[in-house]
Structures are given as C-alpha cells and as structure tokens.
Amino acid sequence: MTDARFDALRSTRAERPAAVLEAAGARRRRPFLDESRRLLLVAADHPARAALSVRADPLAMADRYGLLDRLLVALSRPGVDGVLATADIVEDLLILGALEDKVVVGSMNRGGLQGASFELDDRFTAYDAETIEAMGLDGGKMLCRIALGDPGSLATLESCGKAVTELARRRRVAMIEPFMSVSTDGRTTNQLTAEAVIASVAVAAGLGAVSAYTWLKLPVVDQMDRVMAATTLPTVLLGGDPTERPDETYAAWERALCLPGVHGLVVGRALLYPPDGDVAAAVDIAASLVRPTTERAPTAP
Fold first, then answer.
1. Whole-angstrom distance, CA of residue 139 vs CA of residue 83
2. In this predicted model, what pLDDT tens digit does every residue of 264-290 receive, in sequence order?
3. Domain-embedded: residue 70
4. What is the rounded end-to-end Cα distance, in angstroms, of the chain?
5. Distance from chain centroid for Cα 301
6. What domain range is 213 assigned to?
7. Which candidate in 85, 118, 196, 289 could, as Cys together with 89 as Cys, close a disulfide (CB 3.0–4.6 Å)?
C-alpha cells in the first residue's frame, strides 16, 4: 500500500464515487465454497463497532492506511478466500482491485458500539440484504448477542431473523455470530463455555423463515465436539482476540477444524495484527490449518 496508491484511492473516492459501483459490477465472483469445501476469510468489521484495540494499543485499527496495507497482504496470500467487512472497507478494496475471485461477506449490524451504554442494542446500521445483492456480495454477517437480563436482546433477535429471511430470499449466505452475553457494571462479556455456546447455537439456528442459507460463526471453546453436535448448519470458527501466545491459538483452531460441520476460519485481528507483525506468516499458518496438505514425506525403508 504505497503512498501513491493511497492517494489515488482518496482521489477516486472524492472525484469518482461511481467507481465503486463500477468495480462491484465488474468484479469476478467465485462460488462461496470451492471444491475443497473449506473457507478462510479475513474479518475487518471491527472499527465500525468502535472496537479498535489490539492488545495494548487502543487505536491499532484506527489507522486506515495500515489496516488496508495489512488486508492487501492477507488477501494476496494463497488459501485466503475473501473478506468480511463493512461497506467502507469493502469499497476501498473494490477500488484497489483486491476482491477479484474472492468471497465477500458484508457486515450488517454494527450499532452495538463497544463500551457504550447501548452496546447490546445490535441494530442494523451497515449492509442490508438488498444492497448485498445489488453489490454482488456473497452474503451478510450479523452479530447476535443474547443477554437474558436485557430486554433489548429481543429486538436484536427479531432483526436478525428478518435479515436471515431477506438474505435467503436472495440466495445469499446469512452468517450469524451468536453469543450468550451478560452485562455487568456497563461492561458486556460473552460467555465462552460449551453450555453457553450450545444455547446460542440453538437460538441462532432457528432465526428466520428459511435456514437453507444460514451459516454459523462460532468461538472456539473447550468441548467443541459438543458444540458441533448441537447443529447441522455449516460453521466457521471466529479467531477471537489476538494474544501473545499465537501457538496456543493455532493449536485450538487445528483441533476444532477437524470436527464435522466445521468448514474453516473467519479471523481478523489475530491475523492482521500478530505479535511479531508478520501478517503474511500468520495468514499462511491459518491457511495451512484450513487446508492441510495430505502429502507426507516417504518413510524410510
């Protein structure tokens, strides 16, 4: 992402806004799943929910130049199938020509801003099903946090149900990211036990009038075999917050990727902002886990 390329992006945005629609209309598309039936997407919808921090840096993702640079590196690596993002980032990548032959999932509800008093009010403030179809995107992703002590969760469930139905009518994937959540002293926490994730799966799978195009995006927790036994819906694993111990994260992903019904990973900060700063290396490791090689060195006689 050179300075000249970034300047050209800014100029196009200001002088030729129609270039976004032109690029979307001309984009080469591919099937959501290829012949491997595996999927690796890079997630970049965090900024729209004011979730900008990575480890000790509270504004790591606020630098759009740096974020786009990291996305371009990630999308250029073998085995990366596409991106999950809000319209502003998708459109930047369209103008930059980085989404040819890629899966593109539009993020739909970003209203529950991190740390806000209304954080659990996950309103649909980004993509809608109509625009996802018009822009030639492959699906829409929605966050579905369920807090039994917060009446606002009912509105989130209703909105997600409508979005699932509208996407299915257009034969677009509805990717639901469900959590059982609690809010204590103004801080929202997702419950990451097997029992909580199983409960969230049961609720999410029943949303909408049609589930034929519904996918689940689930956290990796202990006893993932029990979680995956709770649904027949195709599932991808979310990467979670990046830590200083990526080897442990990779090992957990590898175990979960072997389970029936798991088709791949959707990872954001853990790949875009690895502790050593090497985006390409982090992405390559994830790609090797999603599509492990079956070739082995010959054993000695």
1. 11
2. 999 999 999 999 999 999 999 999 999
3. yes
4. 50
5. 46
6. 3-7+39-290
7. 85
For residue 85, being part of any structural domain is answered with yes
Residues of the chain below pLDDT 50 = 294-301
pLDDT in tens, 84-131: 999 999 999 999 999 999 999 999 999 999 989 899 899 999 999 999
Count of the separate structural domains present in the chain: 1
Does residue 15 form part of some domain? Answer: no
Which residue carries 């509800």 as its tokens?
A: 109
The CATH code of the domain that includes 115 is 3.20.20.70
Residue with the two structure tokens 């099903």: 129
